Amino acid sequence: MKKFILLFFLILIHYSLLIENCSAQSGWYPQNSGTNSTLISVHFIDSQTGWAAGSIGLILKTTNGGTNWMPHSVDSVIFFASVFFIDSQTGWATGYHGAIAKSTNGGNNWVLQLSGTLNTLESVYFVNSLTGWTAGLYGTILKTTNGGNNWFPQINSSISFQSIFFTNSQTGWASGNGDTIYNSTNGGINWISQPAGVTGNLYSICFLNPQTGWIVGSNNIILRTTSGGTYWTPIIIYLVDPHSVKFANSQTGWIVGTEGKIFKSTTGGMEWIQQISGTANQLNCAFFADSLTGWAVGLNGTIIKTTNGGSVFVRNISNEIPDKFSLLQNYPNPFNPSTKIRFDVVQHTPDPLSRGEFVTLKVYDITGREIQTLVKEKLNPGTYEVAFDGSNFASGVYFYRLRSGEYVETRKMVLLK
Fold first, then answer.
1. Is 239 found in the same domain as 160?
2. CA-angle at 48, arms to 45 and 50, nearest 5°
3. N or C: which end of the chain has fewer CB within 10 A?
4. Cα dist. 190→124, 135, 154, 177, 187 in Å?
């Protein structure tokens, strides 16, 4: 009997490890939106309840984390650009021709509100059930203090605003086309321009507190501030037109953009690692309920979800401790468009309580320019395998380099399309 119980638990542990390993490799996976219409915005209030909005007046709702999405049509001539809920019942959606719609029953029914403008309203943000702002084309910023029953204009500007974000009832930012970001510290009564130092369409704003925030836009623009926007630091990565930025905490964030590209940062936005999204459709908006659970929406009704922060690259092949660090030749080679790279990790830190070795695996083009980071984390001793997807790169010779402590090894691979 004891042997049977022991065997049962061994099987259970083995099965759990398999499930954990599969989950760790799931990364981003598609959800069935039930539509081919373009989705522009997504917002969740927790890990289960959320909404997505887009063309033909369509607003989708889920109450089970996106397993099922229920459509709610507001007005077929409205193209919604932004959706925001302050709680499980109360939310707003804004869009073309100055449209503002409000729901007080979780998105099941929507009532149109008078905005006083015909300008497209690209972004909406509320800090409580009464106080909110919406921003849009031709310098439009509107504010309400009674839940949207009345909206009044706040700014005189030539900028067409794309995004607005407030950290509290007093402090907020708005951005759009051009090289200027606007900041208010008195609830929008006054707006002060902040030079971005770059020129382009600044699509998306995310702040964690009145000091720390990020903005992304066209021409590979990624900006970071830790001074409330007094100074903005540009960060360069190779991503075409990032459309949305979302941070779950001060270190962990994501940007999504064209061709289904997703990048993740665990360094507060200073460095970014590309993730495999599983789609080539443009992604317009991302939202994370926490550091692991998030969604992104885009063209052709695309909705993708992650429950592990989007990590998909490294897979543990064996826990048998190798004799030394080693980097194997990728296979297949030449390849088109993807290949696998296997490597061995040993424990060279003498501290027996050390939780693995810090390992990086990076890919470089023929000029030596770093184009992608595949691994950047602590790994326990064992054998690992990682996938490199060359779909977005030209044919040619590339190099991949494994580094851990003083160990460094580089190999060559050939992408042949």
1. yes
2. 50
3. N
4. 18, 15, 8, 20, 8
**Last-in-domain residue among 306, 332, 350:** 306
Is the pTM above the cut of 0.85? no
CA distance 198 to 238: 16
The helix/strand/coil state of 148 is coil
Rg (CA), the chain: 24
Q: Are residues 112 and 220 in the same domain?
A: yes
Of 276, 306, 336, the residue at which a domain comes to its end is 306
Domain enclosing residue 336, as ranges: 314-415
Tell me if residue 272 falls in helix, strand or coil: coil
- CA-based max dimension of the chain: 80
What's phi and psi for 320, nearest 5 deg? Answer: -65, 130
Q: In what order do the strands lie in the sheet with 39-44?
A: 39-44, 50-54, 58-62, 70-73
Residues 155, 71 share a domain: yes
Per-residue pLDDT of the chain (417 residues; tens, 9 = 90+): 444 444 433 333 333 333 333 333 447 889 999 999 999 999 999 999 999 999 888 899 999 999 999 998 787 678 999 999 999 999 999 999 999 999 999 999 999 999 999 999 999 999 999 999 999 999 999 999 999 999 999 998 889 999 999 999 999 999 999 888 999 999 999 999 999 888 889 999 999 999 999 999 988 899 999 999 999 999 877 666 899 999 999 999 999 999 898 988 888 998 887 787 888 899 999 999 998 899 999 999 999 998 878 875 577 888 788 889 999 999 999 999 889 999 999 976 555 444 567 888 999 999 998 887 788 777 888 999 988 878 768 999 999 999 998 899 999 999 998
- CA torsion through residues 138, 78, 283, 84, sign: positive
The CATH number of whichever domain residue 101 belongs to comes to 2.130.10.10
